[in-house]
Predict the structure.
Amino acid sequence: MTVTDASTDDVNVGQFALRPAPISVASGVYDMDLYQDRVIVRHEDVTPMDIAGLVHFDNTVDTDIPFIAATGTPWTLDVLSGSGLMVWDAIRLCQTGKLICKAPALIQDGSPLLGTGAVYTASTYPLTIGGSFFARSGATYTPATSQVTFAATTSGQSIGAIGGSTITFNSLVFDGGGGEWNIQTPIVSQAGITVATGTVRGSISDNRKWFICW
């Protein structure tokens, strides 16, 4: 370290010039994943994340945060347009209220993504999906008695899972004018299927019969 003459102002702070020794670094970083426009949910202990864990700091506090969580009857989680919801690998999310993922402008908007080994536990409250739905390897969606409504108004949406794993919903509704969904994995709806508006391409079972849509 080289110390230069002290300054002559009232503070009289010494000025330092540092000459650190050169260090070697790796030629690249190959294990970093960047997730743009995602609300990523995770927890550090064994307690599952729920809406109560998100209500303290959201878009009402900082407008750069793309979700609004609110108390009430029911509690609500509103993932704003421009972002999708991701449940991180091996993380558990309990949907303890009404959850809305806004309709998309980009491919990931309004689209829940369950990471590897993640667990999403639904409830009696509805889930509205403005985009696609995808589960990675080992991810689990537990439907409870909720209704899931796919409400995209654009084409190119899909429902899928790595390895072609079956995704089971309770009640399934497709209701988006101009929306188009491609079924890429076996889908079961326990309490029935309604295609109100939009186009569904693929096959879905309601535990009584198969619906083939093209």
About this structure: The longest strand covers residues 171-183.
